[in-house]
Amino acid sequence: MNFERKEEMFWVIQDLKKKGWSITAIADELQISWPTAKKYTKEIPKKQTRPARGSKLDPYKAYIRQRIEEGTTNCEVLFDELRAKGYTGGKTILKDYVQGFRSAPRKQGVPRYETAPGEQAQVDWMDCGIQNFEGKRRRIYGFIMTMGYSRKRYVCFTDTMKMDSFLRCMRQAFEYFGGIPKKVLFDNMKTVVQKRLLKEVVLTSVFADFAHYYGFQVDVCKPGKPRTKGKVENSVKYVRQNFLQRKHEPALEAWNQDALQWLETVANAKPNATTGVPPEERFQDEIKALSPISGIAPYVVAKWEKRLVWDGYISVKSKKYTVPSHLGLKEVRIRWIDSDHFEVWDHEQKITTYRINEETGKTTIYRPEHLPKLKGALEEGDYGLATSPHVQKAPEVETRSLDYYELIGEEEFLVCKP
């Protein structure tokens, strides 16, 4: 007899008792035992509750709450950590427990854009905050590249987002994937975009050269629409909620080693939420469409320096080198190819290339085609130095034999003789 039935019987018994019925008569009428009838004339039935059973999760709840306070609410991460500590329960009970500590997510529908295998990769940076690495507080950044078709990811960590580090991360990503996609999509990061015009995006000269070297097309998101690269945005979120919530040795090298292992065992090995297939499995179709990177020498991450143009010259290692005067430049950049060669660039293109001149005593190195043409020169092609008075060509002198001068001398002698 359930609790509701007992409660209903209690009120019937109470009513019959008030009417003068005996306990025996009540028991016979309701077809219950005499002790039960007597009991319900005196006390209301109480709902019986079972004692709470222990959960396999109970011994680990203190640890879970500690990890949640540290910012880890990803059940995949917590489940792996609990299994390492001896937890034998399931994942569902863990999710139900952690759900109470989460805030409700706010989602906004965005049209999904799918690409063919090898067609596109997406790139983004993420800020990992200030970390105490090797006794020094440093801000750490994560570089992420995601293949559009397979969703296979690559991630590495640096302490700078400057050009040399950025290009090095790009090369490492291509090597990790074993090839180069046809297009790579970026947002309007300063290392990629120099300026945006009405109908044109002007790339930085360095990155344009890098893209040309590896043979991929650069695509850039429209301003204010970062969700255009939603695949890598999801990867950023995944790295933040999964990898960063795990425990790592506080060193940059350790983070990068852990990241490679995490990519192989977690990020690219488990089924993707959208495709339902592990990225590594889907990548087997994509790698066939990538341009091979084997045989391509690493791009030289060159050193760039600014130089002021003064009277048509720039100063490099205590010597002056000319730049084309007709460009009217006030400032240029030099790109060191190696320790002995450098290129001179304006904002968009290479102007000229020089080799460092080591001649002792020579302080000025100029090229005639860089200097302005002299006005009033006798012949086409006369040039002058920008900082020196020009020198006209010497007039041509007729060449005569010595006999001619001896004859003149004899004539003068006869004329002067008295």
Automatic annotation (TrEMBL):
Transit peptide in keyword set: no
UniProtKB keywords: DNA recombination, DNA-binding, Transposition
Keyword DNA-binding carried by entry: yes
InterPro entries: HTH_IS21_transposase_type, Integrase_cat-core, RNaseH-like_sf, RNaseH_sf
Gene Ontology molecular function, alphabetical: DNA binding
Residues in Integrase catalytic domain copies: 113-287
Biological processes annotated in GO: DNA integration; DNA recombination; transposition
The protein's name in its UniProt record: IS21 family transposase
Family, as annotated: Belongs to the transposase IS21/IS408/IS1162 family.
Location of the HTH IS21-type domain: 8-68
